[in-house]
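Table S2 (text version). Query chain:
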Amino acid sequence: MPAPSKDFIRKAFDSITPRYDRLNQILSFGMSEAWRKRSAELVLGDPRFTPKTILDLGCGTGKFLECFLQKKSWESAAGVDFSVAMLKKARETVPGKVLWLQEDFDALPFLEGSFDLVVSAFTLRSVQRLSEFLANVQRILTPGGRAAFLDLTRPRNVWVRLFFYPYLKLILPLLGWLVSGDRKAYGFLSDSVRRFQPPEETMRLMQSAGYRDCTKKSFAFGAATLIIGAK
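Corresponding structure-token output:
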């Protein structure tokens, strides 16, 4: 499914910022924060990988980046988003020295080899040209650096799907609309998860872009997946 226009995404996320984090916890049955924390543990758990610089793409309110900041000290940390409201909340709520930048993650303004670790949570479905995006992320990684993408995916277990698909198609957009007041934003979330490519295809695109040692970890029977690749 083609990603929606950037103008739609920017306006949608600006409008839901005040209730975004709480609503995500509700809609994920309280699991989204655990997925972020577990992802940070997995990414930083390899003793051979000792990153000093980190970038969060589509950082939103900074919750994913905060999980990494709590695990270790960093020489530099940056978060990129093009929602002014999201970045404002990140600046106000995430402790520590972080460079928050309003930029388009389809046109990253960083030099080659700028970061040891690039992370992103729940954003791949909003990327306009995924192959180019993955190649650009690979470009700004240092040699031996890693990228980690956490996103919502579709469970494969048939019994889980019996609940998951009606929830995704009917209940999630309704709850999102009632709590946030923005029906279109959570309608996009529902549609994008149902139609987005499986993790294996994302890994294939990463390998084509030059990533190596690509691995994945599923959470909640596949409702979310973490994909890691190295430069």
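Notes on Table S2: The chain has one domain: 6-154+197-230. The two ends are 28 Å apart (CA to CA).
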